[in-house]
Amino acid sequence: MLLLSHAFSISSSFFLSYRLLPNYRHYLRAGAFAPGPFAAHAWLLLLIFPLWYLLLEALGLNSATRLSWRAVIARTVRLQLFGLGALSALIFAFKLQTVSRLIIFGFCVLLVPISIATRWLFLSVLEAHRSHIYNIARILVIGTRERAREFIRQARQAEEGHYEVLGCFEPEAAQAPREVEGVRVVGSTKILRCYLFAHPVDIVVFAMPPERVPEAKDLMDAALELGLRVVVLPDFYVQRLGYTVDQQQVRIDSFFGRPVAALSSVPRHSSYLFVKRVMDIAISALLLLLLAPLLALLAILVKLTSPHGPVFYRWKVLGVNKKPFVSYKFRTMVPNAEELKPQILGRNEMVGPAFKMRDDPRITPLGRFLRKYSLDELPQFYSVLKGDMSLVGPRPPFQEEADRYEFWQRRKLSIKPGITCLWQVNGRNHIHNFDQWAQLDLEYIQKASLWLDLKILLKTVPVVLRGRGAY
Length: 471
Prior knowledge:
The protein has 3 domains: 2-131, no CATH class; 135-233, 3-Layer(aba) Sandwich (Rossmann fold); 270-465, no CATH class. 46% of the residues lie in helices and 13% in strands. It has helices at residues 2-20, 39-42, 45-58, 69-93, 101-131, 146-158, 192-198, 216-225, 270-290, 292-305, 337-344, 365-372, 380-386, 399-402, 422-425, 434-447, 450-465; strands at residues 137-142, 163-170, 179-180, 183-188, 203-206, 229-232, 250-255, 258-263, 312-318, 324-330, 390-392, 418-420. Helix 8 links the parallel strand 5 (203-206) and strand 6.
């Protein structure tokens, strides 16, 4: 619903800008405003929607989380400034003469009050919906010990006012405290069936092992027969090990049909991974199509300048969690390069398991040019299309490199490898210690997002055009 409200704000602001600005043309210099047909501008929404989505995500406005209105206004203004700058750059770069700059400017100005008003309306409707008596979940808790206490605290913190814990029940009520976290202990589970029938209850939560509740199956059946929801809180023991379920690396999931606590230090947001894969397929397919003539020309040049070897170098590397795969590059070295490698290992300029050498004698003259402008990497878009690689991610290593990793460096292989990453856009030719390289990859893994991916892709373009490719 929030995404729909953003889409409404953007669309209505754009349309109002187109419709209102002609009324003020007499305040402008002659010929300054010639709007033309709406269709000449409406296609810009295809650029605006994804661009604004990324900016909303980056600025934290793409969430129903309560922010102070001062923060909302400040972030909304920043959003329009960044968006206006990006759109202006695109219009200038592609020389879009038919697009009115005033409509774009008016759109960004109008979007500030409209988006703030729409957000206020959305949150007001959401709050009214949640506060309605039929949307306040009334809960009974079975148990009075630590698991029950933790659940009651979390229920209060999660959505204050949207849950109401009516009371607690205990198999041995005589030994139970009078209240748990301020919630009254109603009595023994023996009277639970009658209580459910006589009182308005929505959810029954078993905050203790069901096997310790006499006739637990009958009590669950009774609740289900009344159409209530039954929740069993499993003890995953992770809290006893120092983890809490609100930490980023802990997620409650389903595994082979069983509820589990899944721990991972790698962000695995399904929506992000889905959009990232869609972006990989779309961009790699488009580039392979557009660059087909260049790829054919480079293949011919490689064969003409080095006729005794193959055109493509079969790059046997490791992917996610050391799963091997074969990628392809244009061959930039002499055919017997691997046989000559032991002779030059002592001249390695990279401290660590990776091999880097600026004046590698095995590189052909054409290969040196291809590497300078990263043209040898172009066939890897096929690996991206196949799914072995991504556009953005750590560089895939050779088996012998990965075997020499330190334990902490092995985490580089926890996500899909990519063509470019933070290392490539942060002075790769000036980094001579593999530890720094690995730290940049781990930083990307920790902070991975669509916004970061887009920034890395945009930064990669000038690096390639300036001829700062890897040696």
